[in-house]
Each structure stands twice: as C-alpha cells, then as structure tokens.
Amino acid sequence: MSTGNNEYKDGLMRAIFKNPDRALRLYNAVTGKNLSIDTIVEIKNIEPVFLSKLT
Questions:
Q1: What is the DSSP secondary structure assignment for residue 37, as one 8-state letter?
Q2: Are 20 and 39 in contact (CB under 8 A)?
Q3: Is the pLDDT confidence value at 55 over 90?
C-alpha cells in the first residue's frame, strides 16, 4: 500500500476534476469511450455525503 502524501494526492485529483474539459478527457481515457467535447459535464462533490456516513 502506498504511503504517499494523501493531501497531495487529494489536491491533485481535485485540480484535475474541477475542470470539466479535463475530467471529460480523463473519463474517456479510463473508460475507452469517446464522448464529444460538447458533452455536458456536471462536477459533484460527494464529500458531505461521505462525511455524513462517518458521523
């Protein structure tokens, strides 16, 4: 298991996914799909939902 800096990893993922164009390109690369650049991308934050399950 990686022992890297979790804050750095989190910051990197947030930086990538807060930009809809980059998020779409990453999604296409990971899934092998080819959604067009005109595809509407809605960025959602799941942190409140995740944290509510912990309390």
A1: T
A2: no
A3: no
Amino acid letter, residue 50: F
Q: Which amino acid is at 10?
A: D
Percentage, residues of the chain above pLDDT 70: 65
pLDDT single digits (tens) 10-21 = 777 777 778 888
Whole-number Å distance between alpha carbons of 33 and 55: 37
Instruction: Tell me how crowded residue 23 is: count the other CB atoms within 10 A of its CB.
Output: 15
Q: What is the DSSP letter of 18?
A: T
DSSP state of 20: H
Lookup: tokens for 48: 């409140």
Q: Which residues contact 28 (CB under 8 A, 6 or more apart)?
A: 34, 35
Cα–Cα distance between 7 and 26 in angstroms, integer?
21
